[in-house]
Specification:
Layout: H1 4-20, H2 23-29, E1 30-37, E2 43-45, H3 46-54, E3 58-73, E4 76-89, E5 92-93, E6 96-107, E7 110-120
């Protein structure tokens, strides 16, 4: 499927949808069996991931996806990068920097995010 530019574009679309809390765009970018491991070890399926936005519990003031390295494996890929956010979750400040591993698959001729894992970074890495 395509070149690495497609995957870089996918990452930008994902970050934009996360920033805006755009559940329609996110639903289209995630596989039906998507799962995410949060920075404290909790696991969210696609429905719960999107529910954070539909409920209004999660709001981002900023959301960046940078320092991304992409590794392709046929119709699968891994993207490693840094997510930086200024956010509120259920009224609490959840600003932070996270190392993220994204697991992508080519489904129906398009890249989709099948899973991700977040790990908190104590100190923001240099750009």
């Amino acid at each position: 499927m395509g070149d690495d530019q497609e995957l870089a574009d996918f990452g930008r679309r994902w970050a934009r949808a996360e920033l805006k809390g755009d559940t329609e765009a996110l639903a289209a970018l995630l596989t039906s069996d998507f799962s995410a491991v949060g920075p404290r070890g909790f696991v969210l399926d696609k429905e719960k991931w999107l529910e954070r936005y539909t409920s209004g519990a999660l709001v981002h003031d900023s959301f960046d996806w940078e320092n991304v390295e992409i590794r392709r494996y046929g119709d699968a890929a891994v993207a490693l990068g840094v997510q930086s956010q200024q956010s509120i979750y259920e009224g609490r400040d959840v600003d932070g920097h996270f190392r993220i591993s994204q697991f992508l698959t080519a489904a129906d001729g398009q890249w989709r995010l099948a899973g991700l894992h977040l790990s908190a970074i104590a100190v923001r890495p240099p750009a």
